[in-house]
Structures are given as structure tokens and as C-alpha cells.
Amino acid sequence: MNRDHFDGSVRNLQGRGKTALGAVTGRARQQVEGAYDQAAGAAQYAYGEARDTVNDLRRDGERFIDETSARAHALADEAEQRRQAIADRGYALADEAQRRGRHYRGEAVRHGRAVAARADENKAVTLALVAAAAFGLGWLLRPSR
């Protein structure tokens, strides 16, 4: 309730009193003034209602803005956390891929050295295998007639 509610209600009651008193005493002017005060009081009361409604809507709007802003900040924080988690996972996967790559490279070097050592020990067999592989590859890749 605001000041316009109160003043409008008081003026309306005063107008009713004037109208009633004018009716009892037979004074038309007092009745008209009472009716005028009643109408003015009702208008002032309605203005007070409108002010309260506008203030309520403004308050609701501010609360909505605050809640929306808080929700937007929460969503932004959540998105940042998810982005960071994805980045951390990406770094972890990259580290794991490097670790595995080093491991497999080491295994390949070790196996390659073992094959080279075995080929060095068995030169005649190695030469025969290379010649057979070259012949087979040449035969497979020859132009067909």
C-alpha cells in the first residue's frame, strides 16, 4: 500500500460523507462536490494500484535479470570447466600417444637390429631370400600379355 492508496481511500470516504450529508440537508452543491471527491479518490486509489503493479513488475524484472545473469555465469563456468577437462584429456592422450610411440619405435629398432644381426650371421641364406623375394616381386609386377 502506498500513499496514493491511502489518500485516495480517505478522499473517497470524505466524498461519500459529503454526498450523504448533502442528500440529508438537501444541498445539491455539497452532493456534487461529494461525488467529485468520490471520483477523484477512486482515481487516486487506482493510480496507487497502478504504481504498485509497476513496482511489482519492475521488481520481478530485476529478479529475472539477476537470476538470468547468475544462470549465465554458472553456464559459462560449467563450459569453462568442461573445456578445461577436455583440454586436460587431450593433453593426457597426446602424452600417452608419445609414450606409446617411443615404446613402439624402441621395439622396432630392437627387432630391426635383431634381424640385421641374424642376416649378418647368415649371409648366404639372406642373399638367397632377397633374390627369391626380388624374383617373386618382379614376376608379380611384370606386364601381362
From TrEMBL:
Pfam families assigned to the protein according to its UniProt record, in alphabetical order: CsbD (PF05532)
Keyword Cytoplasm (UniProt): no
Entry keyword set: Membrane, Plasmid, Transmembrane, Transmembrane helix
Domain of life: Bacteria
SUPFAM superfamilies cross-referenced by the UniProt entry: Hypothetical protein YjbJ
Transmembrane residue ranges: 124-141
Domain CsbD-like: 4-56
The keyword Transmembrane helix appears for this protein: yes
Xref: InterPro entries: CsbD (IPR008462), YjbJ_sf (IPR036629)
Family (UniProt): Belongs to the UPF0337 (CsbD) family.
UniProt-recorded name of the protein: CsbD-like domain-containing protein
Source organism per UniProt: Methylobacterium bullatum
